[in-house]
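Researcher: We're teaching a course module on how sequence relates to structure. For the next exercise, students receive a sequence and then see the predicted structure as tokens, so they can try to spot secondary structure elements on their own. Here is the exercise chain.
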Amino acid sequence: MITVTNCGHDSRHKTKFCMLRKSGVPNYILLLVKTDAFFEFDGKLIPTAPNMAILFDRNTYTHYESAGDFYNDDWIHFDFIDEPLFLDALHIPFNQPIYLPHMNSLSNYVRLLVKECHSESFHQEQMKDCLMRLLLYNLDSLIISHPSGSKNDRYYPIINALRMNIHNTPHRNWTVDMMAESVHISPSYFQHLYKEFFHISCMQEVILARIERAKFYLSTTDIPVKVLSDLCGYESDLHFIRQFKKKEGLTPTQYRLLYKASK
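Model: And here is the predicted structure for the students to work with:
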């Protein structure tokens, strides 16, 4: 189990804020830093930029300061019970800055952790454990999927939000031009960035989202295929059937029958 000793969300400190722990603390510290700051590494204060995460190991010298008008971060002190090797399976380095394309989802987990720490929930410890795992796995996924330092980092949050919108509303009439316009960049550059970020073209993403939505409807409803195709954004049920069979190797009707037989 992961235990959370203490945590804070969106903690703001005025200028000249300084944190110094010469001997560290006996648990891990995860910081999500949202402003410019200075962190000491190898005896030198190094400037760091916003959207930076850092995981301090137990009993590690820790020194960081504000760099602008104020300092803002999320912070968690945590440890493990009977899971000493949990962090070894992840790609989160100790005691060094990790620059991320965005931290909104990570910060939301911290917000929920803070709320849970001050609740009287019957399953409080289990809830904190689950939230902490989600946070660490999410951070690990960001590190793996988006190496730090890309010159296009500033576009990632808005294009990733668009990607989530595609999967949430696959029935919309998605086109390259309307997607590019929504993020205020040219269609050609948008397509280049989308492929760079997600290793799939934007229109292939639309097809994938529609097929996944269709599979959900086929396995959980008795909606006729012709109606279902419209719910998934297809103007023609014949186009839907051809595209579904190309991706899944079965027609929608065959997929539904096979699913019911397996149940």
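Model: If you want an answer key for the exercise: The chain has a mean pLDDT of 91. The chain is about 45% helix and 20% strand.
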